[in-house]
Amino acid sequence: MKKRQVVLIMTDTTRKDMLGCYGNQKMKTPNLDRMAKQGIKYENAYTCQPVCGPARSAIFTGTFPHSNGVVTNCVPFGANVKTIGHRLTDHGIHCGYVGKWHLDGGDYFGLGSCPEGWDPDYWYDMKCYLNELSDQDKSRSRRMETAFDPDWTEGMTYAGRCTSRALDFLERYWDENFFLTVSFDEPHGPCICPAPWNTMYDGFQFDDNPNFQDDLSKKPFFQQLWAGDAIHQPKEEINHPSRALSLFLGCNSFVDYEIGKLLDKIEDLIPDALVIFTSDHGDMLGAHRLQMKNAAPYKEIANIPLIIKGGERGKTIRFPASHIDLVPTIMDYMGLPLPHLLEGKSMLPQIKNSGKKINDNVFTEFTRYEVDHDGFGGLQMTRAIVNEKYKLVINLLDSDEFYDLEQDPWEVENRINDPAYQAIRSKMHDLLLDHMNQTRDLFRGYQWACRSWRPEKKAAWANSGFTRQRENEEYEPRQLDYDTGLPMEKATRMKTTKDEKN
């Protein structure tokens, strides 16, 4: 019988245009480029929230951050939230996790403790890595300049040590069913990579494009705050060579080298395995005069690379795709029933037939960057819907955005008040509101509907008028109806009370 084997490879902060296979031939990523030729490359795949923890929460639970509770960095899962590792382990499938986790409520590095559902012999979050280093080397591991220290070799890097553990897992368990995650922190800062990668991109700058000149005058106010002094700088000062950019891109090529070792071992031992590559989010790198990531579904941070090997070969898919679909895809591949709780769809039919469309639209969101930080804009409530042609962004506490991605692929012209787009904008708005309802978004309310450009929407205290109870019946008893004390007949129903019935 054919073994069911899945390897999920992740990086942190890799933009689509940081891979050669996505069209930027200045990028040296031969191994991921090779994987793209052997599988399917997605052009319009989106993270569920462009910041580390929330993005990962969706990848590993199949539920949106607003559903699983990890709406910001450094907030843990609730006790009743189950990861894909837990679900597969309960079906007798061996699950290994090597690398960054960022989902236990600890700080950036984690708690060093293996959560339920994963093999503790291979657990290796960043706290485990730091525990192996002297205090002096712990500090060195957080300094960009360490990339030029001759003694900081590949074996001293987090990527190198993650790769070694992942290779050991593959060599030991190649003849059984398993799900292995290899989650690199690289190329995320401090971008430590040894020679030759540490100088590989010296003098590099991105090709000029219109969004380096976006003055943000028609964008939400918080984006103008986010830009800071850059809002007044000429494009030459925003898009320019720097030591930081060189090391960031060098680290990206270094982690591609590490991924190459995994791909070679997979090809040797388990050539029929399902292999998935993605990144949690990207980095603005000066686009729209912004840096890092935050409450904006711009393509630089939200439209992530996604490559899947194990189905059709050498195909490019432009239909919308989402991280929310990875858990149901993996469970479907393993031959398991899909829990009702999951909020995505299996992509397996599309992996086998690239002409099949799974999603008409996908969704992304934002709540805040990190609970520990006072800055980074603080609370920034955002919900967005995206398809192949358009992107609608609702910024609850600010002004909204609408982009025609065919006419304006750089997302410079905000068309939210353009009457020419009224019909499609309203249709997408209704779909977004329905998505918030169907996924029990804990922040839903009439304010998302009653926007200045949608005057026909009227505020109502009852909102849509429904009760929507949680269904997690693989691990919990069916919840009880408030009015009867008996198991609910329907999870979604019109809200009534005993007094109203009488």
Automatic annotation (TrEMBL):
<feature type="compositionally biased region" description="Basic and acidic residues">
    <location>
        <begin position="490"/>
        <end position="502"/>
    </location>
</feature>
<protein>
    <submittedName>
        <fullName>Arylsulfatase</fullName>
        <ecNumber>3.1.6.1</ecNumber>
    </submittedName>
</protein>
<feature type="domain" description="Sulfatase N-terminal">
    <location>
        <begin position="5"/>
        <end position="335"/>
    </location>
</feature>
<comment type="similarity">
    <text>Belongs to the sulfatase family.</text>
</comment>
<dbReference type="Pfam" id="PF00884">
    <property type="entry name" value="Sulfatase"/>
</dbReference>
<dbReference type="InterPro" id="IPR024607">
    <property type="entry name" value="Sulfatase_CS"/>
</dbReference>
<dbReference type="InterPro" id="IPR000917">
    <property type="entry name" value="Sulfatase_N"/>
</dbReference>
<dbReference type="GO" id="GO:0004065">
    <property type="term" value="F:arylsulfatase activity"/>
</dbReference>
<feature type="compositionally biased region" description="Basic and acidic residues">
    <location>
        <begin position="468"/>
        <end position="481"/>
    </location>
</feature>
<dbReference type="GO" id="GO:0046872">
    <property type="term" value="F:metal ion binding"/>
</dbReference>
<dbReference type="GO" id="GO:0005737">
    <property type="term" value="C:cytoplasm"/>
</dbReference>
<dbReference type="InterPro" id="IPR017850">
    <property type="entry name" value="Alkaline_phosphatase_core_sf"/>
</dbReference>
<feature type="region of interest" description="Disordered">
    <location>
        <begin position="465"/>
        <end position="502"/>
    </location>
</feature>
<keyword id="KW-0378">Hydrolase</keyword>
<keyword id="KW-0479">Metal-binding</keyword>
